[in-house]
Amino acid sequence: MFSFFILKKKFKYVINLLEGGTKMEVLYIVIAVVFVLLIILGIMYNGLVIARNKVRNQFAQIDVQLKNRFDLIPDILESAKRYMQHEQETLEGVVAARNHYMSAEGNIGEAIDANNQLTGALNKLFAVAESYPDLKAEAGFADFRQKLTDVEERIRFARQFFNDAVTAYNNKIQVVPTNIVAAMFGFKEEKLFEVDEVEREKQKLNFE
Q1: On the CB side of 160, how many CA atoms lie within 13 Å of its CA?
Q2: Does domain 2-202 have CATH number 1.20.1440.20?
Q3: What does the angle CA 68 – CA 71 – CA 74 come to, to the nearest 5 degrees?
Q4: Is residue 4's pLDDT more than 50?
Q5: Could you say which DSSP state residue 87 is in?
Q6: Running DSSP on this structure, what letter comes out for residue 175?
Q7: Where are the alpha helices (DSSP H) in 107-196?
Q8: Which parts of 83-107 fold into alpha helices (H)?
Q9: Rounded to whole angstroms, how far apart are CA atoms 46 and 113?
Q10: Is 77 in contact with 70 (CB distance < 8 Å)?
């Protein structure tokens, strides 16, 4: 309340100067106001840039693990093809998810969608593999499956930090007055890395 009265008093002082001051005094006041506004604008802009860069940095950590995950796919498919010649639709779903990721080219939203698409395709592949005991027993296939599980755990851990960074960045874009600056300079909201409850359970990728 006290600060409000101080601001009100200063505001009245500025108005009085504008009304009764000389042209030079008015000019100085206008320049000072513009200078202060530019400083505020710069601070808000820099805050948005820092928040966006943090999102990109956090996603870079995830993207390393996503690449590791997708790099395992050719070996998994090679093992599966020897036993699942009649499951072409299932195998093609995994290939399509990998191609989706490869075409994302650094687009965060597309990469996230491709990862979730791969999870669904792998869930289907591993479910079908239940009908092929020889495939399940193959050491190479079991090893690839374990590597996938390990990579997914690292992705899940990194996703927490990524989502925190995205939430902080999106909040800056949505709240006043930084939303005005965000609109002026084309800052766009980023997508959270989310999976639904069903997929979250299936991402365990096990046969127990």
Answers
A1: 5
A2: yes
A3: 155
A4: no
A5: -
A6: S
A7: 108-129, 133-137, 139-174, 178-185
A8: 88-102
A9: 30
A10: no
Say how far residue 80 (Cα) sits from the centre of its chain.
Answer: 32
Question: Are the CB atoms for 102 and 95 separated by under 8 Å?
Answer: no
Place of tokens 């993207």: 63
Contact 122, 94 (CB under 8 A): yes
Q: What are the backbone dihedrals phi and psi of residue 103, each rounded to the nearest 5 degrees, phi first?
A: -85, -5
How far apart CA 67 and CA 152 sit, in angstroms, is: 11
- Coil, strand, or helix at residue 83? coil
| Residue 199 predicted with pLDDT over 80 | no
* Closest listed residue to residue 172, CA positions, set 160, 180, 163: 180
Q: For 30, phi and psi rounded to 5 degrees? A: -60, -45
State which amino acid sits at residue 149: T
pLDDT digits (tens, 9 = 90+) for 47-97: 999 999 999 999 999 999 989 989 888 888 888 887 777 788 888 888 898
Count CA atoms closer than 13 A to 130's CA, side-chain side.
10
For 116-147, the pLDDT digits (tens) are 888 888 888 888 888 888 877 787 788 888 88
